[in-house]
Amino acid sequence: MFILINDSKQGCLKVFGVFDGHGPFGHKVSKYVQTKFLTEYIIQNDYLKPEMINTPERFEDIKRELINIFLDIQDELEAKNFPEGFEDDESISGTQNDNDMIRKISEESEEEKVPKEHHVNFKESSSMKSDKSSDKDIRTGNFIKDSNLFHHEENPFQHGDLSLSGSTCTLAFHINRRIIMAYVGDSYACVGCRGKRFKSGGTANIGQQKGKKAILLMPPEMDHTPKNMEEKIRIYNSSGEVRESAVDKKRRIYVRARMYPGLSISRSLGDALAHEIGVVSTPDIIEYNTGSDLFLVHGSGGLWDLLSAEEVAELATSYQENGSVDPIWTKVKDSCLNDGGTIDDVSLIVSYFNRS
DSSP state, 150? Predict the structure, then answer.
């Protein structure tokens, strides 16, 4: 993640970014995406100058540019497959948890014994073309039959195959009282406000306190998971399907009648295989004036999996009053332990709007 702040006579500009990788090379994908946004788009295009964006016309330009930037990065990831800067190192084989999960899915696939006529062949596209037999196996669904694949010297990820690795991405530009957010995946940014500024659906209310109006936490309207009907329809129209995982009971995205890729988000960067079956990299864009809102909570998916919107709103309010982030992280840690020892990387940014 990153936080950039530029305070000038034209106003204070803050840029926040949260990136959450997944899959064997997810940490490399998220690092690559973050570096791309920082070096080639935000800094080189003068996004850090308040005078460059503090007009309605410029805000409209930025919204269009952000969509193109997300799509361009996806094209680069698919074309390069192993992008520049993804140096080969000892972490190339992924974590033990990754390999355990893949072996478990492989074993379940064998038990299912899907009829041959249900095998799905992917159309060849520029994002999947390769002379490697492992790439062909991934497209035709043959590789999942070998539960020892990830211990074999012909490991398809050995040279950086991004078919099953990707990252979420959420950016927020905050200048004076205006915010633009662009996101793919479940690293959501939510606004905390007092009163009933937003409709009740989807908001969190932590109740009346000392005569003050209730504090609400407003999540994005568009949920980038296969539970969202609009996203689900697109996946089915692209030869994918959504069903409950036997491993963690989450609704995940699969090739029809197969046990992969098992992605839990419907939009991402990377994930070349999932992009063949309806997952997209087009971001949703949100723009609004902050008014009397209190704060912006920007967190990776692990935060929202562990804590309810009500808990996050209450903890963010506690931090503003006490000046300590300890209650937030203590709650996250306790939630992990109570959830059977959940292991996840959690990123969190809390930005207060009306605080010196």
Answer: G
